[in-house]
Amino acid sequence: MAGNYACAEGAIAAGCRFYAGYPITPSSEIAEHMSRRLPQVGGHYVQMEDEIGSIAAILGASNAGMKVMTATSGPGFSLMMENIGLGVITETPCVVVDVQRGGPSTGLPTLVGQADMMQVRWGSHGDYEVIAFAPNSVQEMFDLTVKAFNMAEKFRTPVFVMADQIIAHMTDRLVIPPPEDIEVVQRKKAMKQGPSFLPFDFSQDFPPMAIAGEGHHVNVDSLTHDERGYPSAKHDVSERMLEHLIGKIRNNLETIVQVEHYLTDDAKVVVIAYGSTSRSALHAVKEARRAGMKVGLLRLITPWPFPVREVERIGAKAKAVVVPEINYGQIEHPVREHVDCRVIGIHHAAGSLVPPDKIYAALEKL
Amino acid sequence: MTEVELVHGVEISVKHPRDELLRADRLPHIWCPGCGLGIVTKCLVEAIRRSDVPLDRHVVVSGIGCTSRLPGYLNLDTYHTTHGRAIPFATGLKIANPDLEVTVVAGDGDLFNIGGNHLIHAIRRNVDLNVFCVNNFNYGMTGGQFGATTPIGARTATTPYGNFEAPFNLPYIVAAAGAPFVARWTTLHVRQLLRVMRRAFQIQGLAFVEIISPCPPTFGELNNFEDGYAMMEYFRNYSRVDDHAELSTIGLSMKPPDPVVVGNFVDTRKPTYHELERELIERARN
Lengths: 366, 286
Hints:
The structure holds 2 protein chains of 2 kinds. By secondary structure, chain A is an alpha/beta fold. Chain A folds into 2 domains: about 5-180, Thiamin diphosphate (ThDP)-binding fold, Pyr/PP domains (Rossmann fold), CATH 3.40.50.970; about 260-365, Rossmann fold (3-Layer(aba) Sandwich). Chain A has 13 helices and 13 strands. In chain A, the strands form 2 sheets. In chain A, strands 1, 2, 3, 4, 5, 6 and 7 form a 7-stranded mixed sheet that branches. In chain A, helix 10 packs across helix 13 (about 355-365). Chain A starts with a helix and ends with a helix. In chain A, about 55% of the residues are buried. Chain B is α/β, with parallel strands linked by helices. In chain B, helix 1 (about 35-50) crosses helix 6 and helix 3 (about 110-115) crosses helix 4 (about 115-125). Chain B is built from 9 helices and 10 strands. Chain B starts with a strand and ends with a helix. Chain B is about 35% helix and about 20% strand. Chain B has helices spanning about 35-50, 85-95, 110-115, 115-125, 170-175, 190-200, 215-220, 230-240, 275-285, and strands at about 5, 10-15, 60, 75-80, 100-105, 130-135, 180-185, 205-210, 240, 260-265. Chain B is globular, with a radius of gyration of 19 Å.
């Protein structure tokens, strides 16, 4: 099965019953598969007029109580930015899949890129934190999409699957476990309560969500708002709200951050990679080990929140880290922030996989 | 007997008859003296109170702007979203739960400038929404700049020499896109507004109502309407009720003696998105 189909199946397994999207290469197979599969399970496939409408529609549907998703690529992802902020401030769970292609602008529609890694973190205006996964296999397109839904529902926030064209179009064996073996988190919904009910209770990281039509008479607002959901321009309200939005992620890093180590224990040089590039990196590291070099690989499964502690640990031990990416150093940037050793970025923007040779050559020089 | 309280020696009632439907703790509202939005709020609250749909199932969605502040004063499930995106947000809500009675209240700028594409597509899909568009001929909240409804020649904060861009004729566009229900009234027509809102709740499909409203401190002041009352006078003197008007001819100049043609122009029945989608889901499951 190809990665994009695995992603769609993961969404359905996670309980997604509402998809709104706009076709865009190289993500379109997700929409196509959802248009076939969702009606079979009683779900809704809505093809919107653009990506702005798509993200707005999934936020609306999520507020009606559904698990929701959209999928896109760079140009559509740019269009979604404003309403990603709406999802953040209204604490509306949703999953956004970005199958990255080459850019900027229309760029390389059919070829791979990893150049939206900073946009996913900072692209919408204002302060916020995001949770983003970077799958590196067909299996992970399934597994991490399920996980993205679980995180979105638990944290009440948009969660991103930062795939790339290679992983999305790659065909590989996929194991879909029986439903009882798939961990699926259900949203904590508010029970009908009296006038003291605070739908945006900032004193809890994950207050239960008030669903439309269930009698809460909730005001969900894109304006800075207080615990009641009422708009406010008071300094202390703004601080309380933002501390809550940022804090609910920063206070729970240990349950979010995920990395994979390959031979990093004794490594003098560590490659830090994610997505399809981590496959090239693994190949290069294995070759280098065969040639007797003390090298390892740290794979970032969640590039955001950035795995600070894990990268700091590597930086304290290694004499150098190598960061190959299909961009001009986007994740290299936070790596530099958190290590004292030498950092070598491998910038590759050819619309192709980073050749393992290019990584190997860098390792050889160190 | 209404509960009363003495304030400065005057008896006032503690509760407004429609308090149940208002977030009284959010009042006073932000609107300017002479603005038509208070009238629209009153009509909407009354229409909702008299509707057959239970309060818990009424959902009101808005975008950004003066009009879009309206839902925030209603004691219902209300969604104040982003500029221009009330329609797709409401589309998602309604498709996800067709039992909700979803009303969009937003301004002309929200629905026809930044969000125009969403609106015509919601109409094309015939999503079962009530769309109440309050048209005040300019961007009020940002200080009165011109937009897609500003009449030719009108002065605004960004047309100091007069507007030369041709405005949209809202009922004409909406009818052309295929809306099964299209009406236009002004804030002078409170009975008709109440009636048309109640009718909109009954319509299966997208019901569109343009509500022409004064915007005294910006559009009004710069265009020979010295206050809200002056524009209401214009509505009173020059409104012409014509349910069968030829929609291509009812664009607005907002200059006497040009008429403001009002009425319930279109009232038809066509399959909704939700009805057709239900059929599709049945087919896919068998």
